[in-house]
Amino acid sequence: MPYERNAQERTQGPSADSVRRKPYRVAEVAAFLDVDVSTVYKDIDAGRLRALRVGSKRGTLRILPPDLDAYLAAMATAAAGVTR
Question: Which residue has the higher pLDDT, 51 or 17?
Answer without folding.
Answer: 51
